[in-house]
Amino acid sequence: MRYFIVDDDRASRIMLSNIINESTLGTVIGEATNGEEAIPQILMTQPDFVLIDLLMPNLDGIATMERLHENRFQGNFIMISQVVNKTMVAEAYEKGIEFFIHKPINKIEVQTVLRKTEEQHRLKSSIMAIRQSLTSFETPQPQTKKTVRDHIQSILNDMGIVGEVGSEDITKIVEQLVSEKHNLAPLPPLKELYEHLAMLTKTTPDDILKEGKAIEQRIRRTILAAMINLANLGVVDYTNSEFEYYAPRYFDLTDIRQLMNQIELDGERKAKVNIKKFIQVLYSDTLNRLV
User: Fold this and answer.
1) Structurally, how many domains does the chain consist of?
2) How far, CA to CA in Å, does 178 sit from each of 184, 201, 270?
3) What kind and span of H or E run contains 181?
4) What is the pLDDT of residue 139?
5) Predicted confidence (pLDDT) per residue in 110-161, tens digit
6) pLDDT at residue 270 in the model
7) Phi, psi angles (nearest 5°) of residue 276
8) Which residues pair with 28 in a beta bridge?
């Protein structure tokens, strides 16, 4: 998930950012100290969630939300505040917030709220995908040849990660492998793949190295999200078709079962992430779909 933090208290912004990063809940893509500063940045970056303080100078949290809605921002809001006034809280919910995080910031509360909102976000995305699929089924569309990107993103969508920040990195890497007609084994070293992708936007050796490391982290978090999604499917229905196909092919089933146990116990979602195996299997599946 991609988060944007709006809070005039620097300490709160730092604490929230650290919790999100250290708990692998997603990526903080921007910060602002007030609503006026935040609005153009949010409209440009389109985060999944905006963590916004209720009381701020110049433009408060509720007014900022209204301005963003007027500009057709579709993301979700989580309000941060010490305020316990029932009228203000009710108004905030009416304007479209998902949850409240209370000040002073508590790590456990933040982790719990963000995991709940993430699950709701994924559920909404799944329902939307189902509705789109039903619409396509009801209204026959002319057949068009699918591109490499179409096949890759179809697979990522099946695993519920097409909207994750690292999905674009994964897509570009596999597109590159297909275009260069690499053998399935061995693939180039992962570091080489990351740096080749980094060179599309960076020019100096230091920037390329730094961006390569950032790409690795984004991909790692995205693959972990896929593991968590599949584990959730497995908990609900072990015979689910996506679970049966993707879990044993892309991951170690021992790791998936461990995640399933964590989910059933409502524990932390942690697992080993094998990026090389994931990329290799995705590349193989993509080639098979192109035949």
Assistant:
1) 2
2) 10, 21, 31
3) none
4) 57
5) 998 888 888 877 776 667 667 666 665 555 556 678 899 999 999 999 898 9
6) 84
7) -60, -45
8) 3
233 pLDDT above the threshold of 90: no
Q: ω before 104 within 30° of 0 (cis)?
A: yes
CB distance 78 to 113 below 8 Å: yes
pTM to 2 decimal places: 0.53
- Any idea which residue has 């709160």 for tokens? 12
Residue 52 near residue 65 (C-beta atoms within 8 A): yes
Same domain, yes or no: 164 and 284? yes
Is the same domain home to 101 and 228?
Answer: no
What is the pLDDT averaged over residues 45-54? 90
Which residue reads 């994750």 in tokens? 164
Question: Residue 193 sits in which domain range?
Answer: 148-290
Q: Are residues 34 and 100 in the same domain?
A: yes
Q: Is residue 212 part of a domain?
A: yes
Task: Give the N- to C-terminal CA distance of the chain in Å, as an integer.
Answer: 34
Neighbours of 74 (CB within 10 A): 8
Handedness of CA 220, 222, 228, 231 (dihedral sign): negative
What is the distance between the alpha carbons of residues 110 and 21, in angstroms, rounded to a whole number?
Answer: 12
Residue 95 tokens, joined: 């304007």
